[in-house]
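Per-residue structure
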Amino acid sequence: MTRDEVKQLKVVVLGGGWSDERDISMMSAHACHDALLEAGFTTVDLLDVASDGFVGALVAGTYDVAFVAMHGRWGEDGCIQGLLEVLHMPYTFSGVLASALGTEKDVAKTVYRAAGVPCPRGIDVPAGMTLTDEQVDKLIADLGFPMFVKPAGNGSSFGVTEVNERKELADALTTAGSEGGRVLIEECIKGTEITVPVIGNDDAHALPIVEIVTGAEFYDLKVKYEPSSMHHVIPARLEPGVYTKAQALAVRAHQALGCRGASRTDFIVTDKGEPIALETNTIPGMTPTSLLPDSARHGGIEFPGLCTRFIEYALEEHAEYLR
């Protein structure tokens, strides 16, 4: 199918949902909707997954392909992907298993280690669990201060706390576990914050690395949605060998998790030049200030063209599935 033929297909952009990342998702959805129209697609609808009658509208629309612009629970964790699989509808980004693996940070770290991707030490515990004094002593001995406490299955820095002393730990666990699920407690790696976008399916390759420069304790919600020029340095200021290694590790993480279309793996590069993987986003943000579109732009891919590629990757993967 030529690119001109692809642009004649009927596309639905899926956004919104019920997670605490709903508003960000709607920003991504509107941006992608507008970009696809700018790219020359003739029919592009936008549906809020949380709206009444969503499933009926999705089926009745007889869409050729879905562009998933959802973040967080029910959108990035394999749920919406499962629905689209049942409907036999091609869709952008990762499938059910890769989405679920990428969302659960501690499970993703197990996959990283098996693939030789370095990651922080840590443990995960059930939400609402009260640690004994002995357990806290062991945590402090193993991980030291500061340590990070975060939801094991969330994104966009919701519920993340940097813990600098013992008395802060209980409140951090409550915050991270406020929506249920599991809580990840891990060591704090100090160094240069970078993120490495990867695009493609079997031929996945890394885009320019983004160095994240902030005055905050970590890359929190406020910083993430400020103008990108305030915090993104592209290409990242790394030694050539470190730069190449980080890109290779991001591609390895993408492939180990089974991602397709796109992913974005966040790293801390230590003072010794070692990239340590923190997490992989299987549906990177697509707002005007988001990291992957900013990286792609520096790599010569404007946003309308990038969104077009994601549609093409989805169709390519679906064709492989049907063989």
